[in-house]
Structure formats: C-alpha cells, structure tokens
Amino acid sequence: MKEIILLKYGEIVLKGLNRGYFNSLLEARVRRALKDVRGDFSFDYAQSTLCVYGDEEADYAGAADKLKKVFGIASVCRGYGCEKDMEDVKRVLRERLDGIVGGAKTFKCDAKRSDKKFPLKSPEICAVCGGEVLSARPDLKVDVIDPECVITIEIRDRAAFIHGRGEKGAGGVPVGSGGRAMLLLSGGIDSPVAGHMMAKRGAAIDAVYFETPPYTGEAAKQKVRALARILSEWCGELHLHSVSLTEIQETLAANCREKLFTLLLRRFMMRAACALAHKYGAGCLVTGESMGQVASQTMAALAVTDDASDMPVMRPCIGLDKDEIVVRAREIGTFETSILPYEDCCTVFTPRHPDTRPELAEILEEEAKLDIAGLLERALATDRFERIG
Amino acid sequence: MQEIYLDNAATAKPLPEAVEAFNAALREYGNPSSLHGAGIRAKETLEKARAEVANAFGAAAKEIVFTSGGSESNNHALRGAFRTHCRRGKQIIISEGEHPSAENPVRALAEEYGAEVTAAPTKGGVLDINALREALKKPTALVCVMLANNETGAIYDITAVREAIDSSGTGAHFHCDAVQAFLKCGEYKKIKLYCDTASVSAHKIGGVRGVGALYIKNGVRLPAYILGGGQEGGLRSGTENVAGAAAFAAACRAHKEGAAANLRKAFTNVLAAECPFAAFHIPPRHVDSIVSVSFPGVRSEVLLNALSAEGIYISAGSACSASRKGVSRVMEAFGLPKPELESAVRISFGEENTEEECVYAAKRIAENAKRLKR
C-alpha cells in the first residue's frame, strides 16, 4: 500500500492531437508546484489521471495544498494505491477507513473498473468493499442516494486506487499553454484577480507596476511585490517590472486639462506596457478594469484607452461587480494585501471631476502639446524587473 | 548613502551603552526566578535595572513593573484601574491627543463594560482643563491624560489635572502616558507627585524595543495583567526580559537631558528661513525633541517618500497611525485646517543626531517641499 495523490485532469482531456503537449506542460507545472514540498515525488500518468507518489518523507498535505493551485487540474484527491487484489483492497480499506470517511455518518462505495479483465465486476466490487466497511465500522450507514462520503475503488491497468471524495482543483488549462500576457498590476483589488483569471486560461503572466516616486513610496511597492508573490503561487514565476511615470504625471499636471489627467496617464501606461510586452514576448495586455466602475472605466474611456495600445487588451473582470471581484480576490488570497492603505499610482493626481465621456479628438489635441516619444522613452529607461516566485 | 534619522519619536537608535548592557546581560543566562547561582545573578541584574529606572522617576524600585513597552503599560493601567474604580462611576475622561494604545483600550472598555468616554479638547496643543473639570462633575472612574503628545510634542498640564481630580472629590484614578516625555522634559519628574500610574518605554530613549515600564504609585492597587508564575510582584507574569531591562537602565543612565534643544533651534531656524510657507505647529509648552510642521500643498507621504529616497527619515504623523488612511485624529484635535492636516510631518530628534545633520536635513526638507508644492 502506498499513499498517493490523484490529479484528475480538467478540460485538456478534451484536446485532440495536441493533447501530448498539454500533458507534458501540466506535468512540468505539477513538478514545479512540488519543488519546495518536503519529500521526493514521482509521477505516473494513465487514463487522464496523474498519480503522484511520494517517498517516505513526503508531506502529502503540503503537496495537496500546492497542487490545488495548479491550473489544468479538475480535482485533487488523496488516497491509497495497492495491488489489484481484493484481499489487498480490503486490507487498505480496514486500515485507512477512518481517514477516508472522516466525520461522515453515511457512505456508499463506487467502483470504477477500467481493467475489464479484473475478475469482479463493478457492482461486485462495491458489494465486497461495502461489506468490509460495515464490518469494520458498524456505526456507518449505507446511503446510495445522498451519502456524506463516497468511497471510490478504481481498478486500473497497473494498480488499484482507493480514495474518498477529492477536493476541487484550480480548473482551467496549464499556465503557458496560451502564450504570455503583460498584466498591469496596480496594488488594488482588481488587477491581481484579472491576472489570475488569465493565468487560469493558460496565459503565462508578467506584470508591470507603474510607480511615481515620490508621490508613491516604497511601502506601496512592497505591497505590489507581495501581491505578485501570491499571484506566483498560481501562475508560477513571474517577472515584475516597475516603471516610473513621475515625469509624465508632472508634465500632464503642468500642461493638460485636469479632467483628462487620468485618461492621458492611462494611455501612457498602455504605451509603456505595450513596449514591454513586445520586448519580452507577451502577446496581450491584461488589466483589472470593470465596466463603469470608475470614471476611467466607462465604455467611452476604455475606447480612448484602447486606442493607445497596439495589441489586444484583455479585461477579464469587465463584467464583474466589485463584490464578485472581492469574492475571487479572497479565494486567491490577494484581498487582505490589496486593501492595505498605500497610495497607488493614480490617486495623487486624481482630477476632481474626471471626464466620463471623453472624445478621442479632445485627447489627441491635449497629447499634441506633449513630446510623447521622448516622455515614453525616458519612462521606459526606468524599467527594472525582478523575478517573483 | 548617508542616512539621517529624524524619527526618534517612533523609535530611537539604541545608545551604545544600552547595547553593551544588553549584550552583557544576555550572558547572564539564568532565569531570575531560579534559586541557583545563575538565577540569582540574573535576578540581581534585573533588580539593579529596576532600581535605576525607578531612580529616573525619583520613585522607589517597588513602584516599577517591567512590561513589553508603552502599549502594554497603557493597556495594563487602563483596564486594571477601570476594574478597580468602576464602582465610583462609569466615566473615563481622556484627552483628544491620546495615543491609540491608550484611546483604544478605553474605547474597548466602553464597548465591553459600558464605560462612558469623555474626551477633553487639546486645541493648539493645550489641554482644555475647564472641560476636564466640567466632566469631573460626574462620577468618574479614571482620567487618562498623556504628558507629552507623540505627534505635536505638546506638554499637557498634569499638575492641573491632579488638582481638578482632587477638588472634584471623585477619587478617580489618574493614568499618564509619559512615553514621549520621559527624560525629554523636566515635567516627567512630576509623575511621582501627581499620577497614580504612568507608562514609559525604553526604545524612545535609546534602550531596545520590546521593553517598557509601568509606574504604579505606592499604595495604588491594580489587578494582575498576565497571570502565571507571579513575576513582577504578581502583576505581570512571565520570565523577565533581563537584557532588555538592563539596556533600559543603561539608557536612563546615559541619556543626556537638554540635548534636543539645540538641535531643534538649529533645525527650525534653517527650515523657517529656507521655506517661507512652512507652517510650524508649536504648542506653548512642548518637548524639544518633536517638531511638527506642515507644508500646505505637499502631501505628507509625498515629502516623506522624497526624503526617504535621499536617506532622510522623518514621519507623517505618528508611526503607529501613519499607515492608516486619512488624516491624524490628533492633528485634527490640534485644530489644523485641511491643507495643513494633509501635509503635516513630524521630525523628532535623538541623542545620536548632530547639529550638522539637522541643518542639512532642514535644507533638504525645504528644497523638496518647494519642488513638490502643487
């Protein structure tokens, strides 16, 4: 008998000829997730399930926690592997029953017999195992309609697996299978959620943080680093760029109409992020914008912002309410950090009455007063990046 | 980068004497409660430290309880004194300038035990003693007024507080948070005369972080705060921080009074000359170690960030509340208009500072404030 973790693959099992690519990518992500977990792990892939075996030192609980954050996995299930022999199966059931059942009072057995040569058929396996469970724990009751615990016995090609109900995995597809994206990470609640959503759909994430020293301080940057670190638990190592927009903000404040400050600045952010994306091989930008949430996120404002980008801008939070975004931020663990009270880039120069229905022509007229290329070049010269995660 | 540290009211650099005493006491590895030689030596070190800290108050050693710092001392005194005195009345009177470690326990007593909190104004850095007298017409358990304010440096008149309590006949307990005043102004010597309990902290005077003391006047009864093995006269159980206490005593010994006066003068003269729009908030009576000043049009944290990048460390309000969003409650009580509230910074001097440093810092502050003014 060996303790195991079974990882049920998610939608990549529906892939066709490129299935092998997805599988090997996911296995690489799984290996990476386990690199700091105590113990040595080996892997065995069969029938859309990756079986993770640990050595005697292995920290299975720690491993399961990490694996729940790997995109591409539908469920994470701790269980036991044994010989394909009913006596062995019964022995495992007896010895590990309490761990599998937990506090449940009712159960049913569920057998999956993918090895059709196995002498017992599925209902017979269930009957044998159910009997064994009842003799070991007479306090349990069988409930086939709505059991509190389902004990699954899988008879596979090479071994038998026994486990309780698995936990939900992170879902999605493996990080990196969908290319690379440049996330505009602000330190607020929305942008980490946007990054997480895109990583879930397979994007490898790099992030850029726009700072405006001295209007923003080291504490705000530390907060962004902390957010990037939490994000990296889900999407793997990421590069966090920081670019100073101080000269741009001061120039805007000195030369442009106040009600357009935010949008003009957003357009510079887009330009800078695009330049970084091109340089580091990202194929799109990702922002945390949600339609109508603030003045710079009205439809008209987003159109003006988009105009400054020469690549697709993904806004996965666009249709979410703030409270829905908050629920997600809590789930991924960024919320508590996001609400720490440090100024982010935009707030110091925030106009009193920002324009909610900007016209592109008006914006272009303002920008005509500025040396856009020069400002952008000098801002990009401040780019520094660090590896997070 | 040369660093100039002007945030000594948040925490002061440990004095070399304190570090030396700390290291020496660490080698006294025994538990002061043990009966063997090592324990007895540690106990001796601890009691010697207690006597020296008490001496700084002009108090007796048995009137000093070592704690983990000013916050614990305030919590202990306020919660304890309320329990002892709540039969006299449910009112607790505080000043509007209190540190969060005094105000929040009082607010908690209001929620948990129905205490009624009255706050006496501190406009312009002066405690409104008439408001306090007026409040004392009601039965009162406890009065809590700090000696020197941590954001403005204002010294509140504790002599008048004592007189008001005595003439009110309420018999209220008087607790004083003396963290920023201890060894910083002559007034701290009045603690022994006028206060029932008082809090002090080692790391504000060049000791190490994590140690403080609660002065409990002889004859004043306070319930225990931490129960256990009965250390610190049964009031605060737990194995004593011997090294911290020794460093505290060494800092008391080494501390030179009056050092801040010259630094303050040099600093404010240069700053006022080089930055005409600097608005100083100078209470009529104040400690020299704290200067509060606003630069209308320059948000506090912006100036702080700009200076931090140059290695000059000052504070926006008090470190304990600076990371909260919004403006300082204490500065609001001082009566500043909004532009000055949003731009208030605190410069606080310590013994390690030199006049040269302070002059240079004043010039850099003026320069940055002028550049960043919007």
Q: How does this structure look, described?
A:
The complex is a heterodimer of chains A (389) and B (374). With 389 residues, chain A is α/β, with parallel strands linked by helices. In chain A, strands 1, 2, 3, 4, 5, 6, 7, 8 and 9 form a nine-stranded mixed beta sheet that branches. The two termini of chain A are 35 Å apart. In chain A, helix 5 crosses helix 10 (322-332). Chain A contains 13 helices and 15 strands. With 374 residues, chain B is α/β, with parallel strands linked by helices. In chain B, strand 6 (173-177), helix 7 and strand 7 (197-201) form a beta-alpha-beta unit. In chain B, helix 1 (16-26) packs antiparallel against helix 8 (242-254), helix 9 packs parallel to helix 13 and helix 10 (300-309) crosses helix 13. The chains are: A alpha/beta (389), B alpha/beta (374).
Q: Low-confidence segments of chain B, ≥5 residues, pLDDT <50? A: 318-324
Strand order of the largest sheet of chain B: 2-8-7-6-5-3-4
The helix/strand class of chain B is alpha/beta
Instruction: Work out the helicity level of chain B.
Output: 40-55%
Number of contiguous helices of chain A: 13
Beta-strand percentage range of chain B: 5-15%
Oligomer: heterodimer
Number of beta strands of chain B = 12
**What is the CATH architecture term of the largest domain in chain B?**
3-Layer(aba) Sandwich
Structural class of chain A: alpha/beta
Cα-atom Rg of chain A, whole angstroms? Answer: 26 Å
Major sheet of chain B:
7 strands, mixed
Total count of domains of chain A = 2
Shape of chain B: globular
Indicate the CATH topology of the largest domain in chain B. Aspartate Aminotransferase, domain 2
What's the CATH first level of the largest domain in chain B? Answer: Alpha Beta
